[in-house]
Design goal:
The structure is a single chain. By secondary structure, the chain is mainly alpha-helical. It is built from seven helices and no strands. It is flat.
Length: 143
């Protein structure tokens, strides 16, 4: 039970802190959208990814790892499409998916996802950021 609680904390904390910075840390591809319609569609898709995130956490906490993985893949897909591949929320989605793979003991898949998240966080936030440390912890657990 403690292990699941810790894993849930690892999942939740990066998302909460990243969402507060969404407006200021968008990738160039997200900032280049023009017109109100594109912006509204982006907001709608990101709202959907947030709803799916809550669903994935619920599934994970219920031990429904395969279903959580399916939902987490969709979240990653939405965020990459809307924000680009070098965004903090994409890195958070990669870490979440990796956590679900670790629960399934698919350590190779989890490692590669943590490595992708780590590269994003290091480029965006620098090597001394707490998100980098959390991702390194996840990577160590996967290895």
């Amino acid at each position: 039970m403690k292990r699941q609680f810790l894993a849930l904390l690892i999942i939740l904390f990066p998302i909460v802190t990243s969402q507060s910075q969404t407006g200021s840390s968008r990738s160039p591809s997200a900032n280049n959208q023009t017109g109100m319609q594109g912006s509204a569609a982006q907001s709608s898709a990101l709202l959907e990814s947030n709803r799916l995130y809550a669903e994935s956490v619920k599934l994970y906490s219920q031990g429904k790892y395969d279903e959580a993985i399916t939902v987490a893949k969709r979240i990653l897909e939405i965020r990459e499409k809307e924000l680009g591949s070098e965004h903090q929320l994409v890195a958070a989605a990669l870490n979440n998916l990796a956590t679900f793979y670790r629960a399934k003991k698919k350590y190779k898949d989890a490692s590669s996802l943590h490595e992708r998240a780590l590269a994003i966080y290091e480029r965006i936030l620098g090597v001394d950021d707490l998100s980098v440390a959390r991702t390194l912890d996840g990577l160590a657990l996967a290895r």
